[in-house]
Amino acid sequence: MPASTAENLAYLFRSAARLCLNRSKTSAAVSKKKLSSSSVASAADDAALKKYVSSINSSSPAVSEAARRLVKTFKAPPSSRPAEISSLHDIFSDGLQLGCKNVDDASGKQLATEASSLLYDELDLDWDDQSEDEQQLGNVLTFPWMARLSNDNISFRRKEVSRERKQKWVFKNTQTSRFGRLVKMCGAKLGPDATLDIFGRLGQETGLKEYNALIRICIEKARDATDEEASLEQIYKAHQIFKSVRETGFKIEEETYGQFLMYLTDFGMVEEFFFFLDLLKDENPDTLSRLSYYEMLLWIRVNNEVKIQELCRAFVDDNSEDKLSFRENILLALCESGRKEELIRLLNTFDITKVTSDVLLVNIFKSLGKFLLEPVADKFLVALKSTDISEENISKFIYEYVISIPNLAVDDVIIKFHELRAKLEVLPTSAQYEKLIRYSCDILKVHEALSLADEAWRSDLTLSLESFHSILDACDRSCEYNLVHQIKSMIYCHDLKPNNETFRLMIQLCVKMKDFQGAYGIISDILTMKLMPTASIFNAIMAGYFREKNTSSAMHVLEQMEDAKVKPDAMTFACLISNSQSEKHITEHYNDMLDAGIQPIKQVFMALVNAYAACGEFDKAKKVIFDKRIPVKNLNEIKGALVSALASHGQLSGALELYEEIKEADCHLDPKAIRCLIEHFQSKGELNRLLQLLEELTSSPYWVDACFRVISYCVRHEHLRSTLDLLKQVKDKFSNCQVATEVLFDEVFCFIVEKEGKDMQFGLNLLQAIKTELGVHPSRKSLDFLLSACVNCKDAKTSFAIWEEYEKAGLPYNVLSFVRMYQALLASGERVSAAKILNKISKDDPHVLCVIQACQRTYLKPSSGKNQKKKKALAAVLGLLDGLETRPGNKG
After folding, report:
1. What is the value of pTM for the model shown?
2. How far is residue 589 CA from its own chain's centroid?
3. Count of domains forming the chain
4. Rounded to whole angstroms, how far apart are CA atoms 668 and 354?
5. Which has more confidence, 127 or 765?
6. Which of 504, 506, 430 has its CA nearest to residue 475?
7. Using an 8 Å Cβ cutoff, are 171 and 121 in contact?
8. What burial letters (b/e) apply to 323-343, b meaning 16+ CB within 10 Å?
9. Does residue 398 carry a pLDDT above 70?
10. Is 96 helix (H, G, I), strand (E, B) or coil?
11. pLDDT class of 436 with cuts at 50, 70, 90
């Protein structure tokens, strides 16, 4: 551990311990004196604490021996590659680097800042929208623990902070939760053993929540481990903490043991599962019925049908009241595992009105919808209606049932919901309408969501403002910007009180549809309501003007903010910097920000990177990441922005070099940056690098887009094997959507046309391999693309081969097929064959006749020595063909 880092950590704990001893002195003068003198530390204290911190090491012979003994009992999930087990001392040292090996010695300060952030609500901020400075709160832990502060001091502290960050801070009376988050952070960085020891020395009693947080960290690390011994080490640590929970006298609840059982279940570790199960039964006999849930999940996981049927028989044979909890847990496991046959059989022997768990009822109705068991659902709803269950709960069960029915359109979901509700004579509720609205918004059915809102109003039901926020957000994501005026009218007409977030969302939609007058009209409404507009509202308008390249209007927004007495925030300057046209303007905006007392945040650093790269100042863009004010937790994201900026502006070698540095530091690059690297990768012979980049996006939503960029690269450079492998992955990903698969394969053959190669051999090989290896028959559009590629290559032989593929695929020739074949034969000089095809084309359609004449002008009477004109003529013919294809009468 570097000396200064040890000093920082020593100072952290020394300050907390010293101030805890003096917590009774709460006067302002004394506090001020303590703050001013806290920087003077005792050298003896420093040495003692540094020695203690360095001595923390869980890899002692005793622990290692205990771990080896536990190997005989616990097994870890199978591993794919070896990894070196880190001692707790190594974990502690590496933790201070906060995830990156190349971070300098400021990491001690960062740990201090994180601790202060947790204790004083800084982590409650919305970091994506943050517009204020991420200032350090002065000397770390210069206040006693929040749990030991008096209410007066807490109130004073809150008032003090609220003056600086009035609109951004969210105050909650969650001291225990805050300390729990601090424990979780330290446990992840330092290791569980060191965390318990350190906080014990600070005098903070470790509660059950803290123990559970540490166990959860160990379990998560065990899941992520790729080496069996490393996984075992984490499970051993979790087991030791579990023993501490028992020895401390805490009652062992599901939050503690559930983590162990789910880990053992997920990896099918049967012997270890029952070893731990016996321990729990002896410790807490009250958990027996709940343990049956985990046991059923285990047998389902390992496909042990004998044991599954044993538990099902026990369910049917014993229907006594004292076994109700056991039966409920068996049903819950079957619902979550999707075991249709067993679930139906057990439900037929079960009285639904005796269920005590609302969670189980919701899962039952979800399963009934998923398995299309409408008669059973109707029977259960009628039975529940006859009990004392509230109508609101009945309505909730109906909702869960209908949204779980597969392949049901939103309109049908709404109709089905209302039918069942009317059948049971259940009155509509605001809560269920809001759920239906959110459901519609999640799948971007905005018009249906608005109809539901209107229907709720007509039923004299009140909807929350958050429902309209969901609709506004869905309008943004679905590009239905023009609906903003209708939504605004609904909000105003029904006396809802919009807040700044409502106004921001509406202004954002107005700006995106270039209705700046409407955006300023909303600002007028804000002032009429005697509310104060925020900087984020003006930022949305400014960003819109910049997108329209209207720089003068964008700069005028600053004057409007000044007139409205709204101060620019960090996001304002980030927008200005991003759209700067020169290095001079970048510097001016950045200095203006600092002069206004606004410290840079993540978005500002990213704006600097992009702006410098856009101006060609790549060296200055690279220097941004060395700014000491960048929080360590944001550094990797800013590096990702730099990678994207360099790649986008032709500096691919620099982007790859930075990417390698990030990988060597064991950090992960932002998925958007990896996609950007793939997008701008054009050099030949780097397929392995592209496949490596793509592999990093496996679990990312950007994978499909990036995969097709790699496929495009493979087609351009004719890598047949890699193209097929990637297409197989795409096919597997969209195995449940035939339409999507067909469209995606059509795009691959479109790449053949764009490739403009000299021959069609690669295209033919790809077509045959897709048919034989992937079992996919080409669509009409795919064959049309191949015929178009034959025109570019002037390949008559391949044209005839593809012409036969229409018959093999069972696709009858239509007018477009004949016209494309005629064009391909003319282009390759096969005029006799072209004339035969021409005789089969109907001349009644004037548009078809126009295309034929264009083909004849292009290929029968080419312009002398004018290759460029010939290419333009060819493009014109292809354009005419595309126009014909879009006509309804020519689709077949």
Report:
1. 0.65
2. 33
3. 2
4. 50
5. 765
6. 506
7. yes
8. bbbbbbbbbbbbbebebeebb
9. yes
10. coil
11. very high
Do residues 790 and 760 lie in contact, with contact meaning Cβ atoms separated by under 8 Å? Answer: yes
Specify the pLDDT at position 592: 93
Q: Which residues contact 758 (CB under 8 A, 6 or more apart)?
A: 793
Residue-level pLDDT at 827: 87
Across 143-152, 180-189, 557-566, which has the greatest mean pLDDT?
557-566
Question: Which residue stretches of 424-515 are H helix?
Answer: 430-442, 446-458, 465-477, 484-493, 500-512
- The answer for residues whose C-beta is within 8 angstroms of residue 308's C-beta and 6 or more apart is 296, 299, 300, 339, 342
Chain CA centroid to CA 183, Å: 25
Contact between residue 756 and residue 713 where contact means Cβ atoms under 8 Å apart:
no
Question: Above 90 in pLDDT, residue 441?
Answer: yes
Residue whose C-alpha is closest to residue 380's, from 413, 350, 335: 350
Of 305, 300, 357, 369, give the one whose Cα is nearest residue 328. Answer: 357
CB 592 within 8 A of CB 573: yes
In a domain, 78, yes or no: no
Give residue 451's pLDDT.
93
Contact 614, 583 (CB under 8 A): no
Q: Is the pLDDT of residue 884 over 80?
A: no
Token pair 């003319």: residue? 826
**How far is C-alpha 307 from the chain's CA centre?**
38
Percent of the chain with pLDDT over 90: 29
Summarize the confidence of residues 283-294 as an average pLDDT: 80
Top mean-pLDDT range of 241-245, 405-409, 445-449, 848-852: 445-449
Instruction: Report how far residue 511's alpha carbon sits from residue 513's, in angstroms, rounded to the nearest whole number.
Output: 5
Share of the chain above pLDDT 70, in %: 72
- Residue 74 backbone dihedrals phi, psi, to 5 degrees: -105, 140
Work out the mean pLDDT of the chain and round it to a whole number: 77
Domain that holds residue 156: 3-60+100-172
- Tell me, yes or no, whether 144 lies in a domain: yes
The answer to whether the beta carbons of residues 434 and 463 sit under 8 Å apart is yes
Domain boundary among 126, 144, 172: 172
> What number is the average pLDDT over the span 42-71?
43
CA distance 342 to 312: 7
Structural domain contains residue 276: no
Residue-wise DSSP of 723-765: HHHHHHHHHHHTTT-HHHHHHHHHHHHHHHHHH--S-SHHHHH
Token look-up 């068991």 returns: 373
Distance of alpha carbon 752 from alpha carbon 248, whole angstroms: 69
SS3 labels along 667-698: CCCCHHHHHHHHHCCCCCCCHHHHHHHHHCCC
Residue 279 has what pLDDT?
Answer: 78
Q: Is there a domain that residue 865 lies in? A: yes
Over 313-347, what HEC string results? Answer: HHHHHCCCHHHHHHHHHHHHHHHHHCCHHHHHHHH
pLDDT at 80: 36
The Cα–Cα gap between 611 and 665 comes to: 26
Element (H, E) at 186: helix 175-190
Look at residues 172, 196, 226 and tell me which one is the last residue of a structural domain.
Answer: 172
Q: What are phi and psi of 232, to 5 degrees?
A: -60, -40
Mapping DSSP onto H, E and C, the string for 125-141 reads: CCCCCCCCCCCCCCCCC
Alpha-carbon gap, residue 567 to 539, rounded angstroms = 11
Dist CA 725 CA 739 (whole Å): 20
186 half-sphere exposure, CB direction, 13 A CA radius? 25
* Gap between the Cα atoms of 610 and 442, Å rounded: 32
Compute CA distances 615 → 545, 593, 610, whole Å. 20, 20, 9
Q: Which two tokens stand for residue 782?
A: 């795919």
Indicate if the pLDDT at residue 226 is higher than 60.
yes
Could you give the angle at the alpha carbon of 32 between the alpha carbons of 29 and 35, nearest 5°?
150
